[in-house]
Design a protein that fits this description.
mainly alpha, ABC transporter involved in vitamin B12 uptake, BtuC, two-stranded antiparallel sheet, Diphtheria Toxin Repressor, domain 2, 3 domains, single chain, Arc Repressor Mutant, subunit A
Length: 459
């Protein structure tokens, strides 16, 4: 293989690994079990090391040949590091992790997060001990760094030949994992969706929610083991959760969420490898971990999505709050001008900004912007050195003041609050009171009379 071919295979393997993880990660996220992926990815370590040591034990024990000759013949010459051996061990421990977590949570009355922490830390520690035991007594390349961080750079060098076609062994393994996950999600999509959102409803509809849970956990364990050679057991967590979390910020439809998460996963893998090749030389380093850069790229895409998502993004929420605050301030200014009109003392233009700042505790820029927007909207005019309401501005401000005084009257008459304790709450409620609510309040209070402060409620 030349280096261009190796780079291509690294990208292909990384994309397949990321997509395989993201498929299941969507349902872990919806079930609020994101940390279960973390737990299983750590807890399967004793399964991997245990499978290796179990094969060594069978090969080195004489009485196995006497008790079960067929088993002795089957294991003789078997590579203890065969993917099938590690896969079976990881599946067993992965399912046990889910069972133990549920048992500790149910019978021990322990918080779900705490039960996961108890189980996976103990199993993870046991796995590290078994790995050290395996490497101490046997000359094998089964070290902790390989399992934890992966070695995707070397995956294209270990090849298999299938039907006359040579390809990396990791590619075939991930093909099986991806196909298995895709078939599972496709066949049981309805059951997964219902049991993820409402397990009780799923059970009432005849869906075995518990079975769906353990099937999902089993596939998570298989996917985790299949990803060991590429991005390791720790970085696989990023591919399980981050693409799905980023997609959830962009859409609330499950089908769209899955599709977007797969795009994020593939982009993270491809851009991660490109970044691992191009970025370190720019910073004065020779190279960096491709798997680590893939996880970093996934995190970077998530941050960008978190900032720029149109509905749930930080920027969009800040813009929405800023617009809402500006709208509320403009309505407050209309209410202030209406009250000044009732008193027969129009608001002088020379100190209008200062008066708005002092009354509503806003900046001079916000106060000036509110007045300017009201002028442009034709709700107020400047006449004889003062700001006055236009007919449309008076109608808008009358509705606002009416809502305010109706709320004050309602809180005093029906809630028993003191008149000097209702102004602040009414200031907030007046901006969210529609015509239907206003009419309902008018039926509940003496709308023809004055409010608790002696002011007339506008008709």
């Amino acid at each position: 293989m030349n280096w261009n071919t190796i780079d291509t295979w690294i990208v292909i393997i990384g994309v397949m690994c990321a997509i395989s993880c993201a498929l299941l990660g969507n349902f872990l996220l919806l079930r609020r079990m994101s940390m279960m992926g973390d737990a299983i990815s750590h807890a399967v370590l004793p399964g991997i090391a245990g499978g290796f040591l179990f094969v060594i034990f069978l090969q080195s024990t004489d009485w196995i040949a006497q008790v079960a000759p067929w088993l002795s013949e089957a294991v003789q010459g078997m590579d203890p590091r065969h993917p099938l051996v590690m896969l079976v061990g990881a599946i067993i421990v992965g399912v046990l992790t889910a069972l133990f977590t549920q048992w500790v949570h149910g019978f021990g009355k322990v918080d779900h997060g705490a039960s996961m922490g108890v189980v996976f830390t103990m199993l993870f520690a046991l796995g590290l001990i078994l790995i050290e035991k395996a490497t101490e007594n046997h000359r094998v390349d089964l070290d902790a760094s390989c399992v934890l961080y992966g070695a995707i750079e070397y995956a294209p060098l270990d090849t298999w030949i299938l039907a006359g076609w040579e390809a990396p062994r990791a590619f075939f393994i991930l093909c099986g994992s991806l196909l298995m996950n895709a078939v599972f999600v496709t066949l049981f999509f309805k059951e997964l969706r219902i049991s993820s959102f409402d397990p009780g409803l799923a059970t009432s509809l005849g869906i075995n929610a518990r079975l769906m849970h353990y099937l999902l956990m089993t596939l998570v364990a298989i996917t985790t083991v299949a990803s060991f050679e590429t991005i390791g057991s720790i970085l696989v967590i990023a591919m399980l959760i981050v693409p799905a979390a980023a997609a959830h910020l962009l859409t609330e439809r499950l089908v769209s969420m899955i599709a977007v998460s797969l795009i994020f996963a593939a982009a993270s893998a491809a851009l991660g490898h490109i970044g691992a090749i191009t970025i370190p030389p720019l910073a004065g380093f020779e190279d960096t971990s491709t798997a680590g850069m893939m996880a970093f790229t996934a995190g970077g895409l998530f941050v960008i999505t978190l900032l720029a998502a149109p509905r749930h993004g930080v920027i969009s929420k800040w813009v929405h709050r800023a617009r809402l605050s500006a709208q509320i301030l403009r309505e407050d200014v209309l209410g202030l001008l209406y009250r000044r009109e009732e008193e027969g003392s129009p608001l002088p233009a020379v100190d209008a900004i200062a008066r708005v700042r002092a009354t509503f505790h806003v900046s001079a820029i916000a106060a000036g912007s509110a007045i300017l927007r009201l002028l442009r909207a034709g709700l107020i005019v400047r006449s004889n050195g003062a700001y006055l309401l236009t007919d449309s501005g008076r109608a808008s401000s009358r509705r606002l003041v009416r809502s305010h005084r109706l709320w004050e009257t309602f809180m005093v008459e029906h809630m028993g609050l003191r008149p000097d304790h209702v102004h602040g709450t009414a200031m907030e409620l007046e901006h969210v009171t529609d015509q239907e609510m206003q009419d309902l309040l008018a039926h509940r209070v003496e709308a023809a009379g004055p409010d608790p402060h002696g002011c007339r409620i506008p008709g």
